[in-house]
Amino acid sequence: MPLLNPKLARLQAALPRFLKFRLSRIPIILLFLFSGWAFYRYLSDPTNFDIFDALGLYTEEDYYDPHLYEWHKYPGAARAGDHQDHAAHSDGKKAASALAKPIGPGMDEIGEHHSQDGYVNYTSGDGLVRGWTLEGRSKKNVGKRLTHPIEELMRDNKQRWEDLLKRQSKSLEQAVKEYKRRYGRLPPKGFDKWYKYCVDNNVKIIDDYDQINHDVEPFLALSPTMFNDRVNDLAVAPFTYHVSIGPETEPAISGERSGATRAKQFLNLVSPLGPDLPRNIPIHVSDHDLGSWILGSDQRGLALMRIQSVMKKDGTGLNNVKYLAGAELKRLESKNRNEHRGWFSACDEDSPARGKDRAMENRLRELDGLPPLPEPATPAFVKDVRPGFDWCQNPATQKLHGTMSFDFPRDTVMRPIFVLSKHMRNNEFLFPPMEAYENATDATALKKYKPWSEKTVNKIFWRGTSTGDSYSKRKSDPDYDWRRQHRPRLHLMAQQEEGTKDVWLHRGREWIPENWAVKKLNEHYLDVGLTGKPHQCNQADGTCDEMAAEIKFADRVAPEQAAQYKYVLDVDGNGWSSRLHRLMTSGSVVIKHTIFPEWHHDWMTPWVHFIPMQVDYSDLYDIAAFFIGSPEGRVKGRDDLAQQIAEQGRKFAMEHWRWEDMQAYTYRLLLEYTRLMAEDRDAWSFGTEFIGDGIEEEPVVAPRGQKRAARVEREQ
After folding, report:
1. 74 and 90 Cβ atoms separated by less than 8 Å
2. DSSP string, 383-413
3. What distance, in Å, lies between the first and last C-alpha atoms of the chain?
């Protein structure tokens, strides 16, 4: 055999080792390439907002402004640094309009954006998600609906709840700085004792009290003298009771409604707090189910501008506010301050309630020779309940909810009265109602609880009386129909036997719409009905007789029996629903709609602790089909996810809706109320030593509307 070239010999010897090395690395190389491809596909999906935001590739976020009580689409590039410089404000109407204007896409963008197919889209104006995420990764499944929007909502909102719990302050210093970061001012005097109360009583929510700020902040634009005068004027207000507490007085109650059960419950709640308050205070409380005085966008906008324009980096400046007074305040508090009367007089000029709604936009498009806006994509589910509280952004609520059916001119005087329940745009102080509250571990409450495995009825249950409106024939409103109001409408929907309805059902691996007889849907999914007889109706004009003839009233069901049902509805009555706490501790899933903010709504998370539904109940059958299954019973629903929500809801009630949690909320509210009474509000603040000069602290995010208001002022 001829001798090989020495170089070739060495190459021949090294070749097996080389091939062995390369072949052993092939799986790793393939895994690396596949991971890169998968990551690219993930980034290509516009629904993956979290990774976009983390990498700085997505420049918009849903921004909640605790001052305006609104959700906005907010550009990430302007998140910080714009809070400090605000021009002096002279024309309240223009500046308030700019401040209160919701941020978001224009009407054309909304129509086109909602109709896009292929992913779920959230809109901040109504809190709904619309559409469906279509499968696009596999040729076999491309374009198919494999993942239900409810699964995405549960995933996203679970993360929201977990993030809320994780971010709570762990020290007094952190709590002070977080308060300052959120609201631009120092917390009130006594905040240190409040924090100690929370720690001592295992109150887990320390920072998220935006409802209190929403109620209190506008009153900082009234002088202490005027605020105290208005407090004193309430001493003779009708249908009220009056409580006195403080470190130097014994708890006392007086007034027309002082003997009412609610008055005694309130006294029991606040009496233990008196010794730790900074001073003695009078508290005036309405015993009505619902507050009725409103605060207009122009009023709130100007008040917030006056306050926020003078706040310093160290959180002081409350004494420098140019207070609302004289002719300016008289104009703002006049029922005739704009051409609208009633509920919509509170709305901004270009809000859907007063400005260009969808119907008007389509008329304008027709005149311009343009096609109408595309219909919003379906299905639609509630992601966040808070935007739905605002009737200015959702004017259809006024026709669908009985508590808004009387649209007479509303008082807009800022009055510091405490109420059990209120609309979002009311100007009173909301406190936790104790009505129907039960300690979930008491023997009586335990009789109304059944674990999921022991529940025997796989239906949606509700019973209630025909409260929620005063039903009558109305010459001033010939279009009014009692059948359209929220409680009768729910009953008549469940009683309906004619017609069909499209419902999204799981067939094979895919979700598809099918048309079903409404009678069959009601039989399979619902056990819903009004009880007793017509209530709160006009006998003389025949309304009561109409209701008696058309409504098949159902029998009452005791709470112990209702606990057999896996699903329970909770809807408003004359105000908030007092049964919610009992329902959440029953072990059943609560399906809920309300137009009233409640003291805990900053915490209680949709799709984690309860299932939200729309004001028109249009999503109820789709909710039922997802959790209960198909109407003919052939395909089972996601019973496991329903059980998860039921158990998390009960856990929420037992850990965050205790007597101590209601006291913590009320205690913090009373500290804010006490500072409003102080002649020197800066001196009645707490935490200067934790803030310093404020330079090291991240500035409060300025809403874009606030910056527009400042520009309006500069242009004048």
Report:
1. no
2. S-SGGGG-TTT-TTHHHH-GGG---------
3. 102
Report pLDDT digits (tens) over 294-326. 999 999 999 999 999 999 999 999 999 999 999
Q: What is the DSSP string of 70-109?
A: EEEEEEGGGSSS-SS-------HHHHHHHHHPPPS--HHH
The rounded distance, in Å, linking the Cα atoms of 567 and 613 is 13
CB 432 within 8 A of CB 355: no
Output the CA angle 199-698-317, nearest 5 degrees.
85
Q: Are 340 and 347 in contact (CB under 8 A)?
A: yes
- pLDDT-derived band of residue 443, with 50, 70 and 90 as boundaries? confident
Digit-coded pLDDT (tens) for 567-577:
999 999 999 88
* Token pair in block for residue 579: 């049964």
State how beta strands 380-382 and 128-130 pair.
antiparallel
* Beta-sheet pairing, 510-517 with 128-130: unpaired
Q: Which two tokens stand for residue 652?
A: 């929420």
The more confidently predicted of residues 637 and 109 is: 637
How far CA 29 is from CA of 16, 23, 35, 244, 620, in Å, comes to: 20, 10, 10, 75, 50
CA distance linking residue 676 with residue 293, whole number of Å: 20
CA distances to 125, 153, 368, 394 from 47, in Å: 19, 12, 34, 25
Length of the chain: 716
| Secondary structure element (H or E) that encloses residue 178, with its range | helix 172-183
Helix, strand, or coil here: 578?
Answer: coil
Contact 661, 209 (CB under 8 A): no
The CATH number of the domain covering residues in 443-661: 3.40.50.2000
DSSP code at position 695: T
Asked if omega into 597 is within 30° of 0 (cis), the reply is no
Task: Provide CB contacts within 8 A for 403, sequence distance 6+.
Answer: 290, 423, 468, 469, 572, 574, 575, 595
SS (H, E, C) 455-506: CCEEEEEEEECCCCCCECCCCCCCCCCHHHCHHHHHHHHHHCCCCEEEEEEE
Instruction: Give the DSSP letter string of 595-653.
Output: SS--TTTTTS-BTTTBEE--TT-TTHHHHHHHHHB-TTSSSB--HHHHHHHHHHHHHHH
Token reading at 134: 């279509």
Q: What is the DSSP letter of 335?
A: T
Name the token pair of 536: 């709160």
The answer to whether 570 and 583 are in contact (CB under 8 A) is yes
pLDDT, tens digit, for every residue of 479-525? 999 999 999 999 999 999 999 999 999 999 899 999 999 999 999 99
**Rounded distance between C-alpha atoms, residue 527 and residue 576, angstroms:** 22
37-88 pLDDT tens trace = 666 554 444 334 333 333 333 333 333 445 544 433 333 323 223 333 333 3
Cβ neighbour number for residue 510 with a 10 Å cutoff: 13
- Alpha-carbon distance 451 to 596, whole Å? 29
Phi/psi for 91 (5° steps) reads -100, 100
pTM: 0.82
Q: Where in the chain is the domain with CATH 3.40.50.2000?
A: 443-661
Dihedral of alpha carbons 439, 445, 446, 450, sign:
negative
CA distances 467 to 187, 481, 486, 568, Å, are 40, 15, 9, 18
